[in-house]
Design a protein that fits this description.
Elements: H1 6-26, E1 34-36, H2 49-55, E2 59-66, E3 69-75, E4 89-92, E5 96-99, E6 103-104, E7 110-111, H3 117-122, E8 128-132, E9 153-155, E10 160-162, E11 167-168
Parallel strand pairs: 1-2, 1-5, 5-8, 8-9
Antiparallel strand pairs: 2-3, 3-4, 6-7, 9-10, 10-11
Amino acid sequence: MSTVSPSELQSLSFLLTNQIIKFMHSLPSLQSEIGAGYLPLRGEVAPVYQELLREVPLNLAFPVLIDGEMSFGLPSGFPKGGTWLECPYHEVEPGWIFVPGVGFDLSGARLGRGKGFFDRYLQNRDALRIGLAWSHQLVEKIPVESHDCHMDYIITEAFCWDVTQQKRF
């Protein structure tokens, strides 16, 4: 997205947020669970959290680094931090997680940034995995290894994708 202006990026982020709101309304049971977002890296796809939380009442945790591994914490107030949430927070186990990536395919495969934090965290957990991507990040096939986690859903600025049913909604 380096060729996209800041105003275009903001517009795309609001479109993505609207798709997430639509997704959350289609699966209202998620609203009663603790979910997890992430603090975006520069140029990384991310919802406009203020808008999302204004439209959908969510308990949203964010990544924290504990002993070199990722966990999630519910912030006290609005989340602060770079990649990792700053204190104070309360460590939690989310029931669903927004997962960023460099690329995704429609079978749910994900290409991350290479450090494996999300893959290691999700390896032995049943949390619902919701990939967030710009439409141009969807490709025909992502090469995967045995430790790579797959998504249950993928949300872009243009549509929501149900990986299991292989359909847009």
